[in-house]
Design goal:
Elements (H helix, E strand, L loop, with lengths): L7 H23 L5 H8 L3 H29 L1 H24 L5 H15 L3 H11 L2 H30 L9 H16 L11 H48 L3 H25 L4 H21 L6 H27 L4 H28 L4 H22 L21 H4 L5
Length: 424
């Protein structure tokens, strides 16, 4: 069981350090988007080859995330994060050097991006598990809300930062990765003190424990994973749609377009922070907020084809962003608190992989369906609404344990407090 953090100054340093880690995952792809056309022309490659710069990073990270979770359960989260940061930074350095070496070495750039994806797998998902090891009850939900808000803010600033760095040189942004990763790795090494009494079990027993967890809690975990994937799939699909809309109708590119795209993401970040501060450990409230958030997303998607005014469209996208900000922090606290610390890294990492898949699938699906706008948006409205109904049915509040003031402690159908004693 993790020891609670009592020193306020130390706690602030830890929170600030942990909140920088999600930026690593976000910067990996989002910061490159503004320079992709330039990269294509400077390297004399096809659009498909440019897409591999993004895709190979994403695929590598998605595949390796569960392995990173297992390693964090076995050998500790702190050092998995630190080593991953150094791998991530090294990948960025290789990519940057390959970009300027002899007019650009595309093959080596791909190798660097694969290495970056390998490192990125051990960052944000492991940080979420580490938060649950270090903090209890209300502090846990608060910090996870900050982590989600930081993730959203990273998505806001990444395209803008990429556009600004491109003013120096299109490849300059690759050299930001090693600098940023080294700084964060040093901060993690210095400020984070992982609980030493976290239980470690033999590998065979670890597998058995995971199997028992899925037998006991698999149904609602799968629904929670689906809710996270659907939320991010729709959010990033809509952002892609808005990006194309702004470029074709208004000719917006670079920093101006990034500022407009920031509007729904700022709504998501602000609501994520607010939600994390107020949900505490009340499971019933979390379930209601997840359902409300998904319904807001469904309504927002359903109205998009009916809106022809740009300002109304942006207001509608604010609703979608706000709905996402209700859903994601609640899922974070439910999933990271669902199991004991000995297998938390693996479960959280599986959730991270599913989130990553949702983010990766949104833009291509919305691109492929762009000419069928009614089917696209009404179909996704049905998807979000159906997921809300599924959550309402599966995430049931049973005979809970009531805390002070009548608050219902985190206690799902299968007795979560037995998995994590810090919650009861």
């Amino acid at each position: 069981m993790a020891e609670p953090i009592k020193n306020q100054q130390a706690s602030t340093s830890i929170i600030l350090t942990l909140s920088t880690i999600p930026l690593i995952m976000v910067l990996g792809n989002s910061m490159l988007i503004p320079v992709l056309p330039t990269m294509e022309s400077e390297l004399h490659i096809t659009s498909f080859q440019v897409s591999l710069i993004i895709t190979l990073f994403s695929v590598t990270a998605g595949v390796i995330i569960p392995l990173a979770g297992i390693l964090s359960d076995r050998f500790g989260r702190k050092w998995v994060i630190v080593i991953s940061l150094f791998i991530y930074g090294a990948g960025g350095l290789i990519t940057g050097l390959a970009a300027i070496w002899n007019g650009g070495q595309y093959g080596w750039m791909l190798a660097g991006r694969i290495l970056q994806g390998l490192g990125a797998a051990g960052t944000a998902p492991i940080a979420m598990a580490l938060v649950s090891d270090l903090f209890r009850n209300h502090e846990r939900s608060k910090v996870l809300g900050i982590i989600e808000a930081s993730n959203g803010m990273g998505k806001v600033i990444s395209p803008i930062l990429g556009s600004l760095l491109a003013l120096i040189a299109w490849y300059s942004l690759f050299f930001l990765f090693p600098i940023f990763c080294v700084v964060v790795a040093i901060a993690v090494s210095f400020f984070i003190h992982e609980p030493k009494n976290r239980e470690k079990i033999p590998l065979s027993q670890y597998g058995k424990s995971l199997t028992q967890t899925w037998k006991r809690q698999g149904a609602w975990l799968l629904v929670a994973f689906l809710a996270g994937a659907v939320t991010l799939f729709i959010l990033f699909g809509v952002l892609f749609y808005l990006s194309d809309f702004l470029e074709k109708r208004y000719g917006l590119n670079g920093v101006p377009k990034g500022l407009v795209l920031a509007i729904p993401l700022l709504a998501m970040s602000g609501i994520s922070y607010f939600t994390g501060n107020h949900i505490k450990e009340r499971t019933l409230l979390m379930k209601h907020l997840i359902v409300i958030g998904l319904i807001a997303i469904a309504l927002g998607m359903g109205f998009v084809p009916l809106i022809h005014n740009t300002y109304l469209l942006l207001a509608n996208l604010l609703i979608i962003g706000a709905g996402s900000g209700l859903v994601l922090p609640c899922l974070n606290i439910l999933i990271t608190s669902a199991v004991g610390s000995k297998e938390r890294g693996m479960i959280t990492s599986l959730y991270g992989s599913v989130r990553f898949l949702g983010v990766a699938m949104g833009p291509p699906v919305f691109s492929a369906m762009a000419s069928h706008k009614w089917w696209l948006f009404f179909g996704n409205a049905v998807l979000a609404g159906g997921t809300a109904l599924l959550c309402l049915w599966v995430l049931k509040q049973p005979e809970g344990i009531r805390g002070k003031g009548g608050q219902i402690r985190l206690y799902m159908r299968h007795s979560l407090h037995r998995s994590d004693p810090t919650l009861s």
